[in-house]
Write the structure tokens for this entry.
Amino acid sequence: MRLIPLFLLSLLPAYAAADNSWQDKLQIHGFASQAFVHTSDNDFFGDSDSGSFDFTELGINASYQLLPKIRLSSQVISRRAGELYNGSPWLDYAFVDFNFISTPNHQFGSYLGRIKNPVGLYNETRDVAHTRQGVFASQAIYFDKVRNLVMAADGIHLYSNHFMDNGNLLLQVGAGYPLPDKNVEYTFMGQNWDGKLKGEDLGIFAKVVYEHNGGRWIYSFTTASISLDFDSGAADRIPFPTGPGLTSGELHIDYSVLSAQYNGEKWQFTTEATIEHVDFDGISPLFESLGGDAVGFYGQVDYKFTPQWQAFVRYEEFHLDKHDWNGSKRARESAATSQYLSGFGIQQAAIPAYNNYIKTVVVGGHWDIKPSLRLRTEYHISEGTATLSPRENNASTSEKYWNMFAVSLSYRF
Amino acid sequence: MHKQLKYLFILGYIFFSPGALAHALIINPHTPTAELSRNSIRAIFAMRTPQWSDGTPVHVFVLADNHPLHTSFCKESLGMFPYQLRRIWDRQVFSGTGIAPTTVKSIAEMRERVASTTGAIGYIQPDQVNASVIQISEGF
């Protein structure tokens, strides 16, 4: 898969000779963004409580119309985000688009390769600062601490788009192998284990979008179902209490997002909600209690003073367990586990209740210095730490109440 | 009363007279279409229609997002705002599912590029239409 972009480029000279209009068939775009993040307490993308520049995003993509009904496209990104990503290049997507049917009212086709999952309104382009709602995507829906889980998959999607009198109906379904990374392990299993989570089972994806009156109103529903295999390592299998005593097993995640948006000339209203069902099968009895239904939602109001100046306010909440809204039940369980382990001489600090939810108010805005250059800023006031990564924060010593200031400068072409 | 009638007349003129549109939708003379519905125009300018009905690739030309003629074209013909189109293009360009239209620098360049590109569509001021392009009617 990684060779596809190179392969693509190697094809170009041959087509240049055969067809003078190859420039018309090739499009190259890209983006670059740098942020500064400062938190009162806790870390978000780097050592942010003393001010962090560790959030840098770069990307370049190409689209080539090989034949009238066949298009190739690929994007490579580099993402540096605190302890979560170190900036090494990553093949974001690379697929072939077969456009089987094209009429003025209907499109039907298929994507084959590494495909972005268009979850909610923003997922497929959430790494492109210009297309996000703020410096950061809403963490209630677009969890950066486990972004790879639903970001893309290697597989096949079918799309069917209908352009009707009152609006457009856009359908997409597919199946693919997920691409888990270490962040997924940290989030769902608390730490980096000797073993590895593997995406060897086909996940499924489905989305329905209705755009009323040219997108004045947009409604969408997305659902994805993923299973990951955990292959325990030798160090993981050392029996308890000498070692963690993990076995191999599975992690199932069902993830659905409901979205609605109004797009007016000055006002834009957006709301999205998610429910995420997590189920552990095997691995360890300790993890099985970590399963359950997480919920997240936000509402955002944007106002465009001019097409260049825009401000927004957003309220968002995320709860790891819908039956344990304030996290107290999980905190009691964590304290009991901690005490149980201490009986064997194992020190594991209890996780506080506020690590199981987060409530945030965000106020921000942007200024388009030029059409390709955007300056953004925003301020977050938060209670809870559920969306912070355990890779950057020690949950037991994190601060319940914390604030965050962020500013970013983003370029795209 | 007299003033109200005047406004009514102006409103009526804007809504019912095709001459009131600030733009003319134009296509290349070899493009096989004489009339387009608002849906089709939206789908074409959203870069969601890669081919005309005879298989000719669609080639869309636009002015910059902040150009007054682009703004009035979006509002009048598409019933949309420039930022909505930009978001659709961005989503397609940065997820690989589509491409962006070609942005031209001026109305003169728009007419020239539409006239010289097979399958091209664009918009100019009505008084700029000449024999090199075909103005098509917008069926609402």
